[in-house]
Design a protein that fits this description.
Blueprint: E1 4-5, H1 14-22, E2 33-40, E3 44-52, H2 63-67, E4 70-72, E5 75-79, E6 85-88, H3 90-103, H4 111-125, E7 137-146, E8 158-168, E9 179-183, H5 201-205, H6 208-216, E10 221-225, E11 233-236, E12 240-245, E13 250-253, H7 263-274, E14 279-282, H8 286-295, E15 298-305, E16 309-318, E17 321-323, H9 332-345, E18 356-358
Parallel strand pairs: 1-3, 9-10, 9-16, 13-14
Antiparallel strand pairs: 2-3, 2-8, 4-7, 5-6, 5-7, 6-18, 7-8, 10-11, 12-13, 12-15, 15-16, 16-17
Bound molecules: pyridoxal-5'-phosphate and 2-OXO-4-methylpentanoic acid.
Pyridoxal-5'-phosphate binds next to helix 7.
Length: 360
């Protein structure tokens, strides 16, 4: 698919952009351009273009505003020391977006077009990828919305795929300082046969009430339990979670259709296998974690995701009390996995699984 390029006539001046790239906060500033591809039921995908960044003109009856038919992805561009720009496992994000699209009755964008759309944006906004220091990257936000003006409840006959991009520093500003996690005891994020495995806006909307409670209690993320029995650990609002045991093995909740298939999660499992560390993907109860912490069986916990990379977890808190030490030192395995993963992403460690794709 050819992307038509329509350049902005008012890009941010170089000096202003460079100043902004010194210390970018997460997701508040955006590059000069965006990708747009339209879809109609009659014609399929069409009119692929890169346009100046700007607001979406939308009819108030647009389906996405009423029934939340929306999906998104999160993926980063990394600048290497030689100035080249790479992304990480984009085919996996493209494939996940197709699965999300299927679940939300949206059209599936071909995976190669997904990857090309990132390359097209970088072809005009490459200067927005920060220098490779302090975990700075350019975060892409590909998303797809139902774009038909119609209030009937059925899959829209028009849709739009866009990519915007935001220069970002670490999601958690404390660096390797462990974050506290609020356990959602009164709400669930996703139920069986529901939309938990899809990266759709509604799952995040459903997480915000508990996330707010978490903030009020000094926690920066929320842990969700399974909707049915409220005993099994699923994932955090925007991250997967891993537990490291004293004997060296590592446990993460299995993918049961209600949690997101994290690409960072999958990469970490591979890196652990490469080290001959036993990884168990299985059901994990909150009781197991409480007992494991109390007995000293569990020695490290970390969260992972594209935005969060690998972040050590300190205490779990809830209205029923807290689990784990308040301000633990970041665990050794957590720190070394984080170094290895970011080392691969920034081109400092050999990419032995061919995870990187060059964008420029
Ligand atoms: N779980 C949720 C709910 C997320 O939003 C994310 C972030 O994308 C993840 C897990 C981690 O997924 P990934 O590693 O692909 O970014
Ligand atoms: C990501 O990691 O890309 C996400 O979408 C999660 C969110 C916390 C920004």
């Amino acid at each position: 698919m050819e992307f038509k390029i329509i350049k902005s006539d008012h890009p941010m001046p170089d000096a202003q952009r460079e100043a902004l790239l010194e210390n970018p906060a997460f997701g508040v500033n955006f590059t000069d351009h965006q990708v747009i591809i339209e879809w109609t039921r009659e014609d399929g995908w069409k009119n692929a273009r890169v346009e100046p960044y700007g607001p979406i003109m939308m009819d108030p009856s647009s389906a996405v505003l009423h029934y939340g038919q929306e999906i998104f992805e999160g993926i980063k561009a990394y600048r290497h020391q030689d100035g080249s720009i790479h992304t990480f496992r984009p085919e996996s994000n493209g494939a996940r977006m197709q699965k999300s699209a299927h679940r939300m009755a949206l059209p599936e964008l071909p995976i190669d077009v997904f990857v090309e759309s990132l390359r097209a944006l970088i072809s005009v906004d490459g200067a927005w990828v920060p220098k490779p220091v302090n975990e700075k990257t350019l975060y892409f936000r590909p998303f797809e919305i139902a774009a038909e003006n119609f209030l009937g409840v059925r899959a829209a006959h028009r849709a739009e795929y866009r990519v915007i991009a935001s220069p970002v520093g670490p999601y958690f500003t404390g660096g390797l300082k462990p974050v506290s996690i609020w356990i959602a005891l009164d709400s669930a994020r996703a139920g069986r046969y529901g939309t938990g495995e899809a990266k759709t806006g509604g799952n995040y909307a459903a997480s915000l009430l508990a996330q707010g409670e978490g903030y009020e209690n000094g926690c920066s993320q929320v842990l969700f339990l399974d909707a049915e029995t409220h005993t099994y650990i699923e994932e955090l609002g925007g991250m997967n979670v891993f537990f490291v045991y004293k004997d060296g093995h590592v446990v993460t909740p299995s993918l049961d259709g209600t949690i997101l298939r994290g690409i960072t999660r999958d990469s970490i499992i591979q890196l652990l296998k490469d080290r001959n560390i036993k990884v168990e993907e299985r059901a994990v109860t909150l009781d197991e974690i409480r007992e494991g912490y109390n007995s000293g069986e569990i020695i490290e916990v970390f969260a992972c995701g594209t935005a969060a990379v690998i972040t050590p977890v300190g205490q779990f808190k809830s209205k029923e009390g807290s689990i784990g030490p308040e301000n633990p030192e970041p665990g050794a395995l957590t720190a070394s996995l984080r170094e290895e993963l970011t080392g691969i992403q920034y081109g400092l460690i050999e990419d032995r699984h061919n995870w990187l794709v060059k964008l420029s």
